[in-house]
C-alpha cells in the first residue's frame, strides 16, 4: 500500500514518520522541528543519537531560512540544487530544526531533493523534513520501495512509492564552515564538479566533522570482499565490465559508473538473500562517481574510510 504526497504531508503534520522516495535513496522522514517524531526515527533505525540527520527543504530560499549561506554555499546550491548534494552550514533556526535532529551541533545539514514526489511532500508540508536513509542503522540504504518497506516500513504511518531511485547512492555531503569547503561524504556530485566551482577542497582531516561515518556501514549480512578478480567457492561475484562474472549479478556489464551506482545497494541486498559464503566485488575505477562507489564498498567490507 502506498500513500499520496498529500497524505504523507498530513502524517508529518500529525507527528508521524513517513517513507519518502528521493532520487538518491529512500528516506525515513519526520518533521524536523518535532523532537518526539525525530526521536522515533533514531529508535526505528537503531541509530546512535550522536549522528545528526539531513533536513530536506523544497528550495534554496527555504534552505537559507534554516542555515547560514556564504558565497561558496550559495554557489554550490545554485549549481546542484535540486539534486544529490547536502550542504552543512551554521544553523540559523533551532526551532524548525530541533537539537536532536542536529545531534546538538551548531551546524545543520540541508538538501533540496530532485525527486518529484519528495518535492510534492515538502511543498505540501511546508517545513524542513529530516530524512536519514530508511535502512536500519549499519545496513545498505534502500533504493526500491519494497526494500524501504522491509527495513523501516513498520515505523511509518505513510509510505510513498516513488519507484526505483535513479542515483542509488546517498547524496554528496559538503561542509561550508568558516569559509572552508570540505567533502564529508562522496556521492553523485563528484569531487571534481565541486572543485571546478569553489576551488581545492580542505584536507580530508576535516571529514572527521561528520559524526555518521562509522567504519562498518552499508553492510549486508554476508562478508564483503572488494577488488576481487573472481569468485571463490560459495561467493557471489558482483562484476563490473564486459565478460566479468554472471551478467545477472553485474553492477554494470558495460562498465558504466552511473549504472553501477544505481545497482549497488539493490544487488548487495539480492546477493545477501541467497545466503552466500561471501560477496566478492570487482575492482571499480576511482574516477568520478567511482570515489563514492568505492567509499560505500570499503565501508561494506569493514575498512575504516
Ligand atoms: O541521499 C541522502 O543524503 C539520503 C536521502 C534520504 O536524502 N539521506 C541520508 O541521510 O543519507 P543519512 O542520515 O543516512 O546520512 C546523513 C549523513 C551522515 O553521515 C551524518 O553524519 C551527516 O550526513 N550529517 C548530518 N548532519 C551533519 C552535520 N551537522 N555535520 C556533519 N555531518 C552531518
Ligand atoms: Mg544512512
TrEMBL record:
It comes from the Bacteria. Required for the formation of a threonylcarbamoyl group on adenosine at position 37 (t(6)A37) in tRNAs that read codons beginning with adenine. It is an enzyme of class 2 (transferase). Residues 2-189 form the YrdC-like domain. It comes from Brevundimonas intermedia. GO terms for cellular component: cytoplasm. One of its GO terms (molecular function) is ATP binding. The keyword Transferase applies. ATP binds at residues 47, 51, 107, 133, 141, 185, 218. Its EC number is 2.7.7.87. Its main location: cytoplasm. This is Threonylcarbamoyl-AMP synthase. Gene3D superfamilies: DHBP synthase (3.90.870.10), Threonylcarbamoyl-AMP synthase, C-terminal domain (3.40.50.11030). Keywords: ATP-binding, Cytoplasm, Nucleotide-binding, Nucleotidyltransferase, Transferase, tRNA processing. PROSITE patterns: YRDC (PS51163). It is found in: Cytoplasm. Belongs to the SUA5 family. NCBIfam families: L-threonylcarbamoyladenylate synthase. L-threonine binds at residues 24, 56, 111, 131, 171. It catalyses: L-threonine + hydrogencarbonate + ATP = L-threonylcarbamoyladenylate + diphosphate + H2O. Pfam families: Sua5_C, Sua5_yciO_yrdC.
Amino acid at each position: 500500500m502506498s500513500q499520496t504526497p498529500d497524505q504523507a504531508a498530513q502524517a508529518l503534520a500529525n507527528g508521524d514518520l513517513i517513507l519518502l522516495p528521493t532520487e538518491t535513496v529512500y528516506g525515513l522522514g519526520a518533521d524536523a522541528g518535532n523532537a518526539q517524531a525525530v526521536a522515533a526515527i533514531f529508535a526505528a533505525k537503531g541509530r546512535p543519537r550522536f549522528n545528526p540527520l539531513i533536513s530536506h527543504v523544497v528550495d534554496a530560499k527555504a534552505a537559507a531560512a534554516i542555515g547560514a549561506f556564504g558565497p561558496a554555499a550559495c554557489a554550490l546550491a545554485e549549481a546542484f540544487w535540486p539534486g544529490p548534494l547536502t550542504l552543512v552550514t551554521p544553523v540559523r533556526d533551532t526551532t524548525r530544526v530541533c537539537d536532536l535532529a542536529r545531534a546538538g551541533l551548531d551546524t545543520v545539514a540541508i538538501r533540496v531533493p530532485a525527486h518529484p514526489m519528495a518535492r510534492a511532500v515538502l511543498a505540501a508540508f511546508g517545513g524542513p523534513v529530516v530524512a536519514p536513509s530508511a535502512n536500519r542503522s549499519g545496513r545498505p540504504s534502500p533504493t526500491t520501495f519494497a526494500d524501504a518497506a522491509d527495513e523501516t516500513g513498520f515505523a511509518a504511518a505513510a509510505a510513498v512509492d516513488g519507484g526505483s531511485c535513479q542515483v542509488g547512492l546517498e547524496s554528496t555531503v559538503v561542509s561550508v564552515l568558516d569559509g572552508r569547503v570540505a567533502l564529508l561524504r562522496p556521492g553523485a556530485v563528484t569531487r571534481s564538479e565541486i572543485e571546478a566551482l569553489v576551488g581545492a577542497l580542505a584536507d580530508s582531516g576535516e571529514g572527521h566533522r561528520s559524526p555518521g561515518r562509522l567504519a562498518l556501514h552499508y553492510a549486508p549480512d554476508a562478508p564483503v570482499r572488494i577488488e576481487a578478480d573472481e569468485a571463490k567457492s560459495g561467493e557471489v561475484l558482483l562484476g563490473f565490465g564486459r565478460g566479468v562474472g554472471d551478467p545477472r549479478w553485474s553492477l554494470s556489464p558495460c562498465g558504466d559508473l552511473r549504472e553501477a551506482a544505481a545497482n549497488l545497494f539493490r544487488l548487495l541486498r539480492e546477493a545477501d538473500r541467497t545466503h552466500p559464503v561471501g560477496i566478492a566485488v570487482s575492482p571499480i575505477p576511482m574516477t568520478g562517481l567511482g570515489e563514492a562507489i568505492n567509499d560505500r564498498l570499503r565501508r561494506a567490507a569493514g575498512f575504516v574510510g
